[in-house]
């Protein structure tokens, strides 16, 4: 269902453009192209999740741990959402430790960030904000992705990462999700030597936190 939804809208939008492009006002063409861009990115995101999941089920993921710039990986992970952030007028704020380096598998780390940011966008209304922060704790960085959205029902927080639980969520635009991406996040964070959880002390919105090991070049 999650995969069919963006592909369905992508098909409808391309059909409308091909049939009515010549008679559509420029502002409607621009809006439709923006919607196409969002649908394409959603489809890519879901296919990426499915590819990673299938590889993990077949035990074909062997993490390649190496040193990476935290700021660079986060920047590369979030770049694909620039268009939808602009459309919804959501401000993405990053407060990352300067010259911070982490020891992770880059693909697994970026998949986690993409999933968390995608969820934040899904549940954050127009003119809201999303923040990505980092804080050092001993030999790990705590990465947090918080938003000003509708938040998470307290009763769902404890089961949100459990693989046996089918957690159905509905976004602000009635997007349906099964929580599949969050379960993938838990698995990939663990492969990178960290842990993930939902923060309880948020006044509004939601905040997901996970840890990653600090690279040896950094001294306490």
Structure report:
With 220 residues, the protein is α+β, with helices and mostly antiparallel strands. It contains 7 helices and 9 strands, in the order ααβααββαββαββαββ. The chain has helices at 4-20, 26-57, 70-78, 82-87, 106-122, 154-157, 180-191; strands spanning 66-69, 91-95, 101-104, 129-137, 140-147, 169-170, 176-177, 196-198, 207-213. The strands form 3 sheets. The protein has a 5-stranded mixed beta sheet with strand order 2-4-5-9-8. Strand 8 (196-198) and strand 9 (207-213) form a beta hairpin. Helix 1 (4-20) packs antiparallel against helix 2 (26-57). The radius of gyration is 18 Å and the shape is globular.
Write the layout of secondary structure elements.
Elements: H1 4-20, H2 26-57, E1 66-69, H3 70-78, H4 82-87, E2 91-95, E3 101-104, H5 106-122, E4 129-137, E5 140-147, H6 154-157, E6 169-170, E7 176-177, H7 180-191, E8 196-198, E9 207-213
Parallel strand pairs: 2-4
Antiparallel strand pairs: 1-3, 4-5, 5-9, 6-7, 8-9
Helix pairs in contact: 1-2, 3-5, 5-7
Order of helices and strands: HHEHHEEHEEHEEHEE
Query: How many E strands?
Result: 9
Average pLDDT score: 82
| Radius of gyration of CA atoms, rounded to a whole number | 18 Å
Main beta sheet, described? 5 strands, mixed
Tally of helical runs = 7
Strand order of the largest sheet: 2-4-5-9-8
Q: Residue share in helices?
A: 40-55%
> What structural class results from the helix and strand content?
alpha+beta
Measure the end-to-end span: 47 Å
- The outline comes out as globular
Report the uncertain regions. Answer: 170-178
């Amino acid at each position: 269902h999650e995969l069919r939804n963006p592909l369905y809208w992508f098909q409808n939008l391309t059909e409308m453009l091909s049939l009515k492009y010549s008679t559509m006002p420029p502002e409607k063409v621009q809006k439709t192209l923006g919607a196409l861009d969002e649908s394409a990115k959603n489809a890519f995101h879901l296919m990426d999740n499915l590819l990673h999941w299938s590889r993990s089920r077949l035990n074909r993921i062997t993490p390649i741990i190496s040193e990476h710039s935290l700021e660079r990986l986060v920047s590369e992970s979030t770049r694909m959402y620039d268009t939808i952030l602009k459309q919804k007028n959501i401000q993405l704020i990053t407060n990352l430790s300067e010259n911070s380096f982490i020891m992770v598998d880059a693909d697994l780390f970026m998949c986690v960030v993409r999933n968390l940011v995608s969820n934040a966008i899904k549940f954050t209304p127009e003119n809201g904000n999303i923040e990505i922060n980092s804080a050092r704790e001993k030999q790990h960085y705590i990465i947090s992705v918080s938003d000003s959205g509708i938040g998470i029902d307290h009763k769902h927080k404890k089961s949100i990462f459990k693989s046996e639980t089918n957690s159905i969520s509905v976004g602000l635009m009635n997007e349906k999700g099964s929580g599949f991406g969050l379960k993938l996040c838990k698995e990939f964070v663990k492969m990178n030597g960290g842990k993930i959880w939902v923060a309880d002390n948020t006044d509004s919105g939601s905040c997901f936190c996970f840890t990653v090991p600090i690279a040896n070049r950094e001294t306490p």
